[in-house]
Automatic annotation (TrEMBL):
The gene is LOC108671634. Keywords: Cytoplasm, Hydrolase, Magnesium, Metal-binding. Its cofactor is Mg(2+). GO terms for biological process: phosphate-containing compound metabolic process. Its EC number is 3.6.1.1. CDD domains: pyrophosphatase. This is Inorganic pyrophosphatase. Belongs to the PPase family. InterPro entries: Pyrophosphatase, Pyrophosphatase_sf. One of its GO terms (molecular function) is magnesium ion binding. The keyword Magnesium applies. One of its GO terms (cellular component) is cytoplasm. It is found in: Cytoplasm. It is an enzyme of class 3 (hydrolase).
Amino acid sequence: MAIAVVRSASKLLRGGVSLSPLTISAAKRIRLSGAAESRSMSFSVVERGSPCTLDHRIFIKGENGPISPMHDIPLFANEGNKIFNMVVEVPRWTNAKMEIATKEPLNPIKQDIKKGKLRYVANVFPHHGYIWNYGALPQTWENPSHIDESTGEKGDNDPIDVCEIGYRIAKPGDVLQVKVLGIIALVDEGETDWKVIAIDVNDPLAPQLSDIGDVELHMPGFMKATVEWFKIYKVPDGKPENQFAFNGEAKDREFAHQIILGTHVQWRDLVSGKSDKGELDIRAVTVPYAAQTLSAEEASQIITSTAEYGEPAAVDPKVDQWHYVNLK
């Protein structure tokens, strides 16, 4: 059965993000680890279910059919130039907590659920929703059995997170090519939760930003706002402020590259079956050394077995409420 690639013209998430038919171009030159050749890649999205409901899913398709955004999209868009692929989960200025579903077949992007309800991040004044395009680097994993030497805490069992700080508001499922500028070590409820700071290579500011120090030079106040956002975003939910390693100081590009490569090694151990997968779905379509795989036909059947795309559901106006927090 053929699968139609759908992008709703309706607003998918809070914040006025309109989704139009889209094919997402990946890197012009791709070099996979251990591969001699470079090649171009393209990705598209398949939306299923109704946005702002429990059954909404955003699947990713490669050139030969459905793939896992966690396992099948290469980490590197250009390994020699250290350009990475980033999977966008949450567009800037939106509130719906969208994320790669690590425990579901094909790992689609879906809205996180807590106590049976869809999760939205609070607007903590003066921040509205997420203040960057937020997502993850594919083929990475923060192993919950691994104690991070920098933080002394275990990993959070997810791909490594990315804050893309360019001007363009992306869409869920976009695959961006980014250069890494630095990294923050968030300690979230006793788990290491690295936050990579990166910028789309096509952003007008990208040529001027090469390392974390350049961000303050060209975007004064932005890193301070980023640390503040992560520190207080759970306070409206009754939780304490988040803590950081390095007193919240962002580490530089080289440090970030080492952390990313470490999580890539952990992912390789996961997908090859060397590490305990727990409840994660590690089936891949294109990874040759994957311990568990999906055929193209099986991958297509996973998508067609889900609910048809429908119109977005109404969202509680309380999502737009301002919250005020006194910083400690």
